[in-house]
Design brief:
Elements (H helix, E strand, L loop, with lengths): L1 E6 L2 H11 L5 E5 L3 E8 L2 E7 L5 E5 L12 E5 H4 L7 H11 L2 E7 L4 H13 L7 E2 L7 H9 L7 H33 L11 H17 L4 E9 L4 E4 L7 H11 L4 E13 L7 H12 L3 H13 L19 H8 L3 H11 L31 H16 L5 E12 L2 E12 L2 H5 L18 E2 L1 E10 L8 H10 L8 H10 L3 E2 L4 E2 L1 H13 L6 H15 L5 H21 L1 H18 L2 E4 L6 E7 L4 E6 L8 E3 L4 E8 L6 E6 L6 E4 L5 H31 L1
């Protein structure tokens, strides 16, 4: 007999096999689709096989049609539950085959709640086991995988398993029941079919966004005035009052200062120090990647996961911003020095007597902060290269010295009116040098002046402005807000935001809540406010923590959840028609708004984006059909309205979204004078991109 090691992903299974094999591992395949490995390690026969994430999913037991409430659940193979999971079937078969040859089992899935659940479900439903040995690792380097195998624990973490199983069932209960309730409310009251959804965290998340949207909608701008003084030696100073809220007071100040001499009343210089940044936890990485490179939180996680499985960085799903000495700072820096772009700074840090990163105060029981392993990447695409570079630079910067800057303030006296000019310059680069282009700091140096010096005025500018409404959340900032409110998990928050987009609750990069999203929140607050209760969500999060610590049983928490849902859904059903009518009307408005691009120049009706199933393409047509048959073809891509018109011909502009490219505006008028010129530019741009791609491939091959 032998031992079976179960990994979570194919690439990790391969790396474990290569790390443990005394000789080259023997690669086999199951149904020509699933690779598994056979090897010898210290005289022991080992099989290594992989899952592809969750092979089992929560499903409805004893199905009685599309009704609610439903509470009977069971775990079934994912391919039986979800059409999209059909590809998991051969992986399940491969594990089943190898389990018969093994008498010992080791789980080597990702070291977190999801990994524990994946491993347990495979053991329980395929291998007829309730427990197994467990490998723990934060990187997939050969050294760490060997150590994880030698130091493997004898058991799974039962608290983590039960907590994870509970989370999956709770999320399923909330998701299936609320989604059916919302969807059926529209269908039963209007006859329309539109799948809506909500969930334990999705509801409160949408409520946060809707509250911000309400603040924006009810915001009334207030005018204010600012006075700027510009001297001939290029000092830009602002009146000490900053904002004047009364026009007469502003005019009085302008009159008092206009044409008067300017004297330097005082000069202040003060040094300040800027501490290095903390190492990246997942949320901080998602925020920085979005802010500095425009990479969405969901894509950041996907790229980071790939970098991890390729052994280039440590495990990304971490809530820690601390780096322990045990990861081997000098070893990593020496490895990074082998890459030309990091050589100078890595070698500089290695020479330090003591390497002490600036750790934050966030901890994770399983993993440290995200860090580069030092393994030199092979071929990376552009997005992967950017994110890897950001992670390396952040790692280097945490060891850097304080940035020292000089803050300067000049006070100018103009006939008793005081103006203030502020500037700053870097005296010592410190960690900015290590963080490179990600350490953005705008220096504003002021000229040297002395107290009582008289300056010549170049201009005195009046600025009339208005107060601005609160800013909408971005996909990154809402994730930070959810973390702050302890809603959701580090792994699920980006997926929750994606669901809000998919359900037409929000749109655009700045998360604008649609008519449907606003009406959903308004309706639920009126008839089923419990769905949106943050405290309730946090309560169940705490209950799952208690399960993990062995202070509460899974069955108790699930019973409490079912009792709550049954009570809430009864109340929902009593108001189903009212809810459905409100949501149906909101959905129709959202749908129309999402497709209308402008007015038809022939008849004045709305021009709408439509999809042709026959030609499998989008086009624009007049809603006055069949009386008006005005239509316009569109270029390939996903079209979205812009509320803008072509400056050349006045026809509506449509935004075209293509995978892997920046969105662009496209005039629907086929006779637009700029159209042929635009088409030519696009063709030339495509040729250049193809040329650049081929050149980059050649460079990457040379590096390898």
């Amino acid at each position: 007999m032998a031992q079976l090691i179960i990994a979570e992903k194919p690439s990790v299974a391969k790396k474990i096999a290569e790390a443990l094999a005394d000789k080259k591992p023997k690669k086999e395949t199951y149904q020509k689709k699933v690779a598994y490995y056979e090897l010898e390690h210290d005289g022991e026969k080992i099989f290594i096989v992989c899952a592809v994430g969750h092979l089992f999913s929560v499903s409805e037991k004893d199905k009685k049609g599309w009704t609610y409430p439903t509470f009977n659940t069971e775990w079934l193979p994912s391919y039986e539950v979800l059409k999209a999971a059909a590809f998991t079937k051969p992986y399940l078969g491969a594990i089943k085959k190898l389990a018969k040859k093994a008498d010992e089992f080791t789980v080597a899935c990702d070291w977190d709640v999801e990994g524990e659940v994946i491993g347990y479900n495979i053991l329980n439903n395929i291998c007829n086991k309730k427990d197994a040995a467990r490998m723990h690792f934060s990187t997939t380097t050969k050294e760490d995988l060997q150590k994880a195998y030698e130091d493997r624990s004898k058991h799974l973490d039962k608290g983590l398993v039960n907590s994870g199983l509970t989370r999956h069932i709770l999320d399923w209960l909330w998701g299936i029941n609320l989604s059916r309730a919302l969807t059926l409310s529209i269908k039963n009251s209007t006859g329309m079919f539109k799948i809506l959804s909500s969930g334990r965290v999705q509801g409160p998340a949408l409520k946060i966004l809707a509250e911000r949207e309400k603040d924006i909608q009810k915001f009334k701008p207030e005018p204010f005035w600012k006075l700027e003084l510009v001297t001939k030696n290029k000092i830009h100073a602002w009146h000490k009052n900053d904002k004047f809220w009364k026009k007469d007071e502003f005019d009085k100040t302008v009159k008092n200062a206009k044409g008067k001499k300017v004297l330097v009343k005082g000069v202040e210089r003060k040094e300040s120090r800027l501490a290095p940044p903390f190492p990246f936890d997942l949320t901080a990485l998602q925020l920085e990647a979005y802010g500095k490179m425009g990479i969405s939180p969901k894509e950041t996680l996907a790229i980071a996961q790939k970098l991890y499985t390729d052994s280039y960085i440590s495990y990304p799903r971490t809530s820690s911003n601390q780096l322990p000495p045990s990861i081997g700072f000098k070893k990593i820096l020496n490895a990074l020095a082998k890459q030309d772009k990091y050589k100078k700074h890595a070698e500089m840090l290695v020479k330090e007597k003591k390497l002490d990163p600036r750790n934050g105060n966030k901890k994770d029981p399983a993993h440290p902060a995200i860090y580069p392993t030092g393994v030199v990447p092979k071929t990376l695409n552009e997005r992967e290269r950017k994110l890897y570079n950001l992670i390396v630079r952040r790692f280097l910067a945490t060891f850097g010295e304080y940035v020292v800057k000089e803050n300067m303030k000049i006070l100018l006296d103009v006939n008793g009116e005081i103006f203030i000019a502020k500037g700053a310059k870097i005296l010592k680069k410190g960690w900015h040098e290590l963080y490179g282009r990600y350490a953005f700091f705008k220096e504003e140096e002021l000229p040297d002046v002395e107290e009582k010096q008289e300056l010549d005025v170049k201009d005195m500018k009046s600025h009339e402005e208005e107060t601005q409404p609160p800013k909408r959340f971005t996909p990154a900032s809402i994730i930070k807000e959810l973390e702050k409110r302890t809603l959701g998990t580090k792994s699920t928050r980006s997926e929750i935001i994606e669901n809000l987009y998919n359900r037409d609750y929000v749109k655009d990069k700045s998360l604008e809540v649609t008519e449907l999203g606003m009406k959903t929140i308004e309706t639920l607050q009126k008839y089923a406010s419990e769905i949106l209760d943050e405290e309730l969500t946090r309560h169940f999060e705490k209950e799952m923590e208690r399960i993990q610590k062995g202070k509460k049983k899974k069955e108790e928490v699930l019973k409490e959840a079912e009792e709550f849902l049954a009570k809430m859904l009864t109340k929902f059903k009593d108001n189903e028609k009212k809810i459905g009518k409100a949501l149906g009307a909101a959905y129709k408005k959202t749908r129309d708004k999402a497709s209308i691009v402008g007015k038809c120049k022939k008849c004045g009706s709305d021009l709408k984006i439509l999809y042709s199933k026959r030609f499998k393409s989008y086009f624009v047509a007049c809603s006055g059909y069949p009386k008006c048959k005005n239509t316009f073809g569109l270029t390939r891509g996903l079209p979205k309205p812009t509320d803008k018109n072509c400056p050349e011909c006045g026809f509506p502009l449509v935004q075209i979204i293509r995978k892997g490219a920046r969105p662009f505006n496209y005039c629907i008028n086929k006779e637009c004078p700029k159209k042929l010129e635009w088409i030519k530019q696009q063709e030339e741009k495509a040729k250049q991109q193809e040329k650049d791609f081929k050149e980059q491939q050649k460079k990457d091959k040379k590096k390898d």
